[in-house]
Structures are given as structure tokens and as C-alpha cells.
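Entry 14. Structure prediction run on the chain below.
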Amino acid sequence: MPRLIIGAMVRAVGAYPSGWRYPGAHRDPRGDAAVLRRAAEVAEAARLDYLFFGDWLATGHDLEFRDPHLVARIEPLSAITYLAGVTSRIGLIATANTTYADPYTLARATASIDLLSGGRAGLNLVTGAEPRAAGNHGQDFHQANEHRHDRAVEFELVLRRLWDSFEDDAIVADAAAGVYLDPTRLHATDFHGAHLSVAGPLNVARPVQGHLPIVHAGTSPRSRVFAAQSADLALVAVTGLEHAIAIREELRSLAFESGRDDRTLKVIAPVLPIVGETREHAQSIADELSELVQIAEDWPEAPPAAFPATRSLAQLSGLVGVDVSELSPDRAVTPGLLASFSAAGQELVEIVAERTGRSPSGERPPTLRHLVVAASVNASMIVGTADEIAEEFTAWAEAGAVDGFNVLSAVQPAQFEAFAFGVVPELQRRGLVPVEYEGETLRDHLGLERPENVHVTHGLVSPPGRRG
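Output returned:
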């Protein structure tokens, strides 16, 4: 049975738009410290491989409705530094945007965290450009967007050169001889590219892991090439098992073609499980979360200007092939109404039935609101008991669809703890994840070797696993 990598994508107020509204949910970011600490303790007790912190470099009223977890959140490097002090084994991955970050500052911070944590830090490199983020960093959005992928390639190369500034034995510390540093083992960065110029060397010793594991997520062709050539973990949103198999094969092929050992690229899929004591209980949780999601028709006149345009009966009308814009969002989808739906509309009803247990022919039929939410909230959900969710993970592992999962929790802390204390033991019982940590560093958890120093072995920067 293949060993699965299991990490948790931490969103303190929940990963579902209405998660913060669910009874008992954490909802005030001023209390995030306690929630993050509890999540880290639970995750480490469950022997998860890592905690993952995404990022967004701006805020606004629109995020309240689309992604409430982005409105106000702890900066990722700060979060993993804090959690490094209250954990001892779990990996900690922070996100940085190569479009706006400074490579020397980032290399210095991440090398420091890796040393302070005993080799448990990881780095998710994103390449996005966004008008508000550009304005916050004094950049022109259009220019930043045009060159973001080219800059990301240079950024990754510079990071590796900076992390390798010191050879592992560069600090001699011979008190008797009065020799502290062997200068032949300290290397300048001397990188001069089209977008970055960095002299170096870095003023931090080489990280415990040599290079922090690099993560990348993206759907564009350029992003996939970047992940295949440069990342240790590729985070890929998929629509189902067959899609996952195809994407993993594509990424592995791209990795091999780039000259690296394709087995060193781990493909990870995000998933949002809803865990219940019974299947009906899990479906009731998913049902309530759907009913708590606001849609445009909840405002008598008009929704706020920043409200997502996709979350409305008008948008739903186009999907189901019938004009339902004048109906109540709480109108039941009866067999008669369903009969007029397009094939896409009928498929949407099936998705709602699987998630919530509501059927047009049942005692509690779905409403139009349920369909709007299912169509507009982008979440790869699995709803069921701990055993049922573990069974789904097992099927994906056996099919070779993924190397692991990035688990999101709709509600903090309840759903996160339901996964950690319910699903993980089932995965351990099946032999898919270890009962105890088998190594000390994040690279150990991910099954990755420690890379050689690029200044010594190549004279050029070459990601771990790349041949030549």
C-alpha cells in the first residue's frame, strides 16, 4: 500500500465561506493565536506531515463574501515561526509571492526558521499578480503580471544559491587555532538575471534540510512547467479521480523531460472533508453550511457592490437552462422542476444530493439556494463518516492518482479535530500513514533526500533530483 502524505491547509476561521457562521466556530481573527496553537497540537498528535499556510497580500469587502479567511489573517512566516516554538516534529509550510517578495530577505527568514525548528520548514512559492497587492508593494500591476513567471524562475534559482552560501562545514570554530570560518567554503551568489540581481552570500548558515522543500500550486501551463521543474510538492486542484491521474502523469512527464528524477515530485490534491458520526450526520453538517451561505437574493434591493456575481439565481439560470431568477432562493427543487433542467442542472442536483442527502423525491428536497452554493463555491468536498472518507483516500492512493492530500477544514476547530481524531486513525489502520513520525525533518516526512550544495556539485543552481 503506498504511503500518503497528509498535510493540513490551515484557515483559522474555516475554509468554507459560511464556516465562521456555524455554531461553535472560531470567527474572530484577534483570537487566531490560540486556534493555531490548538490546531498544531492536534495535528502533531495525529502525526500529520505538515501544516500549510497560504497567503493573500491585500484585503477588501469582497473577501468577506468570497473567502472570509482572507479578510484578516496572520502572516505565514510569522505563523510558522510561532508554531515552531510549540511543536517538535510536524512540518510547517509558509507561502511567499515571488512577484513581490525580496529573495535575500526571504532566504534569510526561511533559513533561520529551518535552523530554529530543527529542519521542519517548507516554502510555498506563488507567482500571482493582483492589482491591490501590486499597489501595496509600489508596483505596476500590468508590468508585474507580464513578467511574474519569468521572475519566479529566477527567484527559485536565487533562493537555492543563497541557502547554499555556507557549506555544511564552513564554520570551523577551532578555538585553539583561532579559526572560525573557512573562507573557501563560503560562496557568493553572484546572480544577475533579467529580473533579479543578488550578490550574496547569505548571512545565515545552511538550513538543516539544505534546501527547504519547495511547493507550488498553479493551473496555467507555465505554472505546471514551473512545478515540474522546480518544486518538491505540486498542489493541484482536480475534479475527480480520473482527472487527478491525468494531471499526475502530466506533471511527472514534464519533470522527467526537464532532466530531473520524476519520482522526487510529489503531487498533492486539496480536499475538504465533512466528517460526521454517521453519513446522515455528515450530510446534515454540509446541509447547514450550504444554508448559511449568503446569495444575492438575500438582499431585498441588491447585494453589496463587492458581492460575487456568480452567487445568484440569475447565474444559476444559465446553468440549469431554466429562468429561476424570479423564484425564491428557498424554492424546493421538486421532480417537476427538475424535469425542466438541463443535463448540467440535473448533475448539480446529484452533487447536492450526495453532499446533503437532499433529493427532489425525498421528504427534504434541495432548494435553489443549495444549487447556487454547489455551483459557485469551489470546494473539492467528501462528505461521510471517518471510515468512508478514509476509503475514498485509499481508492485514490491505490489508483496512483495522488501522492497525498492537503486537507481543508470547513469549520475550526470542530471539523479539523474530527478529521485528525477520526479519519487519520483509519488511514493509519490501513497502513496509508505511519502511526509515529519516521524522521526528524519535513524532507523526511515527504520522502525527499537532502540535496547537495549547488556551489560544490554543479557550480550552478539545480533543484534536488534534477539530473546533470
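Residues 461-468 have pLDDT under 50 and may be disordered.
Filed with the rest of this week's runs.
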